[in-house]
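To whoever is on call:

I kicked off a structure prediction for a single chain this morning and the downstream step that reads the tokens threw a length-mismatch warning. I double-checked the sequence; it's 248 residues and nothing unusual in it as far as I can see. Pasting both halves so you can look.
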Amino acid sequence: MKLARFKAHGLICIGRIEDAVIHPVGPEAPPREYALEEVQLLPPSEPTKIVAVGLNYRDHAQELGLAIPEEPLIFMKPSSSVIGPGDPIVIPPQSVRVDFEAELGIVIGRTAYRVSLENASDHILGFTCLNDVTARDLQSKDGQWTRAKSFDTFCPVGPWVETQIDPSGLQIELYLNGELKQKSRTSNLIFDPFRLVEFISGIMTLFPGDIIATGTPSGIGPMVAGDTVEVRIEGIGSLINKAVSALL
């Protein structure tokens, strides 16, 4: 089932998507359906935090010539970095190289703290597309990742949450202006989504709506103002955003 947050006629609602039609759900849902083109899709959740994982694809580690990590390498992106489908990615004036990173996003459905591997799936609402936008030059300059990962608009998420999918072998792709730049499968993940929920919830409480960005495959590269970036994940959908200059 695909669940989306959307805005229609000034109202923000949650809906179930079937055949390009949104069926609002919940006690305050409007008593009508909407065609997708009638609404503005919003980020599919309102996270208190985004916990991201570095170097979590075997092909990406090989690309960089780095050893496979023994434990997940985690970092944070602020909730202020989140944008939805179609929203612009703003290239900040502080950076001369901003990269795309296609990722599978885990959306938390139930509060999770010290969750076991066996029970991890009970705390996952579903999965979505995510672009872990990164100021690569600042990442190298700073020696740590907070500034490079945290600019406003640096976490496009969407277009919805798929609640009924096996995340273990999905094809993940990124297209820059229609040209394929990244392609892999989630079977290449070093730490799968359930292991990540177990590991991260052992450190911090994950709240409903929080997002785990599971890492990016090989092929990362730069984008500039005017570029269109699309993350496609098999069985979930397509997340499209355009990069713009902060000076506009």
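Update from on-call: the warning came from a stale cache, not from the record. Cleared it. Sanity check on the structure: The mean pLDDT is 95.
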